[in-house]
Structure formats: structure tokens, C-alpha cells
């Protein structure tokens, strides 16, 4: 029996050459296939936030820029690990987004968007691409106890009043 595959658009630390790429390149279980580079068809705000300079895609279509990134096809086992990494659905939420590959092929994908974001994030600089320059100030989350303090820097309380597309 074959598992269903999901196309995931990554725009930050999971991209090739970035700090967390190993987590998508060699997941603990499951299968991941690189599809190609592209950009979202819709514009979104992408910011870096928290004192760890984590990249966040905000679920406000029509604001910001078309976001550059990479598309991967993952099976359900690999998706579980990605969802755990991104703390889907409480920190990031995996939501649909259309992507145009550099080869001009349009794909339906899913991407991880920050949910329940603080309004002040919309005042930060919007980026169209997460670059090595931005990644230089990224700090990996090494302590689980620190995650809640990072969340508090960018999210409203846990009242499930999510920003949605």
C-alpha cells in the first residue's frame, strides 16, 4: 500500500545550505524527494523574529512579496517529523500555497505559516528570500524549555484565535 505524498514548500532554515536542511534531507524515517526551486504565486510577508532570528511566513496573502524557496515531496512518515519540528499546528500551521517552479511548472503545495502572530510583526522588514546573510544570525533552538519564551515573542496567547488565509 503506498502512502500519500505531500508537496512542502520550504523558505527558511530547511532549504539546502541552511542550518536545518539535514532534517529534511535525512529524516529519521520516511522518504523526501527534492522537486525544485520556485516562488509562491501569491505575495506573503516573511519576517525574521525572536531573539533567535527565526524566519516566519505570515498568513496574510497580498502583503509582502512572492517568496523564494524549495519544494520537496514527502511521505506521511517524513511529514510527521516535519510537523514535529515546526510544532504544527500550535506554532506553525501547515497550509496550502501555490508555487511556480523555476521551470514554470505550477504546483499545489503546503507551507508552514506562523499562526496567531502578534500584530507588531507586520511592522518588521519583509523579505522575499531567506538568505545566508539572514541565516548568519539564526540561533538553533537547543533547549525545549526555551521554545515557550520564543513563542511568546511572536505569538498572541493560546486562545486558538489563529490568523488564517
UniProtKB/TrEMBL annotation:
GO terms for cellular component: cytosol. Residues 8-118 form the Gamma-glutamylcyclotransferase AIG2-like domain. One of its GO terms (molecular function) is gamma-glutamylaminecyclotransferase activity. CDD domains: GGCT_like. The active site is at 86 (proton acceptor). It comes from the Eukaryota. Belongs to the gamma-glutamylcyclotransferase family. This is Gamma-glutamylcyclotransferase family protein. It comes from Exaiptasia diaphana (Tropical sea anemone).
